[in-house]
Request: fold
Amino acid sequence: NLGIPQDAEHIRFSGTVARREEGPVLQGRISITTYESPIVLSPERCASPFREPPVAFHSSADSLLIAGKLVLPDGPGPYPAAVFVTGSDPDTREAWQFEARSLASRGVASLLYDKRGVGESTGASHDLASWDDLAGDVAGAVRYLRSRSDLIDPRRIGLIGQSQGTWIITKVAADDPEIRFLVTISG
Reply:
């Protein structure tokens, strides 16, 4: 609803790949309907100011090994924590890293994980998993966090779900009265 005919809306990029010492860089111009700007995309990764140790835990549903990472605030714990649960896409632990880092800057730890059958997590494709299987993965994540009382306050653990993840976190919370909060995004 930009005040122009819908067929006039567009996103266009024109540019080239430049070879630089640090790797290939995509540079050019992007236009979004009436907005235009230069753009440069490089493979450089921003270092996180937070501790992000890799972790692994077992699903409560079928004992699959689920791989992920913690995103921990600076300073001493134990911290309140959130488990991020993605939608139906084959997401890795990196899907919610920006949101997890934002929480870490406010003193809240996060557990991010690769969906079953994705990244470093074992098992068949997540598309073949039942909702009970996926809920077991989240319950396993919560069990893992509760076992880490050196870092995580086991009385302050919540779940954040997006799309399909909202259904999964609701299922987990219905079975676990000690879950302290739910955040549903696009449920």
Notes: The chain has a mean pLDDT of 90. Residues 86 and 95 are 8 Å apart (CA to CA).
